[in-house]
Write a structure and sequence with these properties.
By secondary structure, the protein is α/β, with parallel strands linked by helices. Helix content is about 40%, strand content about 15%. It has 19 helices and twelve strands.
Length: about 525
């Protein structure tokens, strides 16, 4: 082999090595995700009867955000519902998951009414220190909303990185109460990211904290109309609201926060209500009832079995099943997170919601339980009816319709192409727990999903088809009888000149097309064959 040939081969090999090093360096420089976070997958068979995957998104320098994904039992193209945990309250990964819409109940038995039959469910303990999400250290509690949203973006990158088969599934964000503080800026960030702008289709905001001071301007009226306070109590509440609005206007948000969180005590002790749960107004309390932020503990008492303790259940039953370490104390830093959120909580976010409406195609659906005094519906409408966006006139002029399910009035709704508002009856701060029938119907209408063809749905459909066929047969038989009656009348009048045979209206169908009952009076306007105990 000639020396010249060896030199040529050596040069080629050297160039290939340099090219490989160049590609490696480029990958290391451009792969920005790996220097921000990593994904720590958890056990996937600890709760064997349901399909799921769960993980921690470990964000360097911050902590671990927990997410738990339940793919739909239907098909892969179903929408993803992203449930964001809020600032106050009980984590969705516990209460909403096991107490309402997840695939398992508190006894770890399969729930037949779970939303997983129609949607992919993604629960995220959004804030470090809440739920199973852990802080790296005590100094890692965030006070900057932008950093909190960054963490959620990393979490979604982590989720899709291990669930890429759901890349094309429509994404809807579901936020109850003060989770709206995270849902709105997260939606904005997703719209700005070309990797996610096509995924995000809608945002559901339930009893949202968007303009809390303005909402409270109607609280005195609301409570007086329900006879919980008298005129003096209403005047005291309105003075409280005016003071709160003044603090917000002067951007003294921390003091406004402190006053806002004393609302329940003020109403009961100084406005004369004595024992009102402002989160679920019809609940009967005693003077000595234990109360927390806005009466949220009431859901713990009403939804969770008496033998279930949140921390014990999540730490001793769920954590081992998922392979989570024993040193993870569930929801341990909630009070610290609330304290850190004080400067942000009372700041209005109406303008950010208007930005989404004006600059995207995302569908915004706001819904309110009519038994929530904190986010009382008349107060919420004070800012909803005055939103500044190009479709507002169309929204306010659209018809307010009745939400009828199984012949029961479950609420009302006003819909436009981009903005919807739902009045949910007999519901407080968590409509999915208080009135799941109405809330599920709202989700179905907005996401445009068809009911899953389960055995129950097929049974209802076949019964409806049989009833319609019978109704058609009866209509045809009635028409034949009417024809024979008319023929007999003509025969009688021909045989008896000058006499007229009158057919009694009770045996003759005298209705005209204009008198035909509308379908809405015969079949539920928005009734679902998949709803339990459905009748038509």
């Amino acid at each position: 082999m000639s020396k010249k040939f060896i030199i040529i081969i050596s040069v080629i090999v050297g160039l290939l090595i340099l090219a490989g090093l160049g590609v490696l360096i480029w990958w290391l420089v451009t792969d920005t995700s790996n220097d921000k976070f990593e994904t720590i997958l958890l056990e996937t068979d600890g709760l064997g009867q349901v399909k799921y995957n769960a993980a921690y998104t470990r964000i360097y320098g911050a902590g671990d955000i927990f997410w738990w994904f339940f793919p739909s039992t239907s098909d892969q193209s179903r929408p993803i519902l992203l449930f964001l945990g809020g600032v106050t309250g009980i984590p969705d990964s516990f209460l909403l998951n096991f107490g309402g819409i997840g695939p398992l109940d508190f006894n770890l038995n399969t729930r037949n009414t779970s939303l997983v039959s129609d949607y992919h469910l993604l629960f995220v303990d959004s804030l470090l220190g809440t739920g199973f999400s852990q802080l790296e250290d005590e100094q890692s509690i965030l006070t900057n909303l932008s950093d909190m949203v960054d963490n959620l973006i990393y979490t979604l990158q982590s989720f899709y990185g291990h669930n890429d088969e759901y890349e094309d599934a429509p994404l809807y964000i579901y936020a109850q109460g003060d989770a709206s503080h995270l849902a709105i800026p997260l939606t904005t960030r997703l719209l700005e990211d070309e990797d996610y702008s096509h995924k995000i289709k809608g945002i559901f905001l339930g009893n949202p904290i968007i303009s809390p001071a303005l909402t409270l301007t109607k609280l005195g009226f609301y409570l007086e109309e329900l006879a919980y306070v008298d005129g003096n109590g209403r005047a005291a509440i309105e003075e409280f609201s005016t003071s709160l609005s003044s603090l917000v206007s002067s951007k003294n948000f921390e003091e406004a926060f402190n006053q806002f969180f004393s609302l329940g005590e003020f109403i009961n002790e100084r406005a004369g209500a004595v024992a009102v749960n402002v989160g679920y107004i019809v609940e009967k309390l005693t003077r000595n009832s234990v109360r927390d932020y806005f009466g949220l503990s009431a859901y713990r008492d009403r939804v969770i079995p008496s033998d279930i303790n949140m921390k014990s259940f999540m730490e001793e039953t769920i954590a081992p099943a998922l392979g989570i370490s024993n040193d993870n104390n569930y929801d341990e830093k909630r009070d610290d997170v609330i304290k850190a959120f004080r400067p942000l909580y009372m700041e209005p976010t109406v303008d950010k919601l208007e930005n989404i409406l004006n600059n995207s195609n995302v569908i915004v659906t706001i819904f309110n339980g009519n038994l929530d005094a904190v986010s009382n519906t008349p107060g919420q409408l004070e800012w909803i009816d005055h939103l500044n966006w190009y479709g507002q006139t169309n929204f306010t002029n659209s018809e307010r319709k009745t939400l009828v399910i199984n012949k029961q009035i479950e609420g009302y709704f006003r819909e436009s192409s981009r903005l919807n508002f739902y009045w949910i009856n007999i519901a407080g701060q968590s409509t999915l727990l208080d009135n799941p029938v109405a809330t599920k119907k709202m989700l179905e209408r907005v996401t445009h999903i068809a009911p899953t063809p389960t055995e129950a749905v097929c049974k209802h459909f076949n019964e409806l088809r049989s009833d319609l066929a019978l109704a058609l047969d009866l209509k045809n038989a009635l028409a034949s009888c009417e024809f024979e009656l008319q023929a007999l009348r003509h025969q009688y009048e021909a045989l008896n000149p000058g006499k007229t045979l009158t057919i009694p209206p009770s045996i003759c169908n005298t209705s005209t097309d204009g008198e035909t009952k509308p379908v809405s009076e015969i079949i539920d306007v928005v009734g679902s064959p998949s709803a339990l105990n459905n009748t038509i």
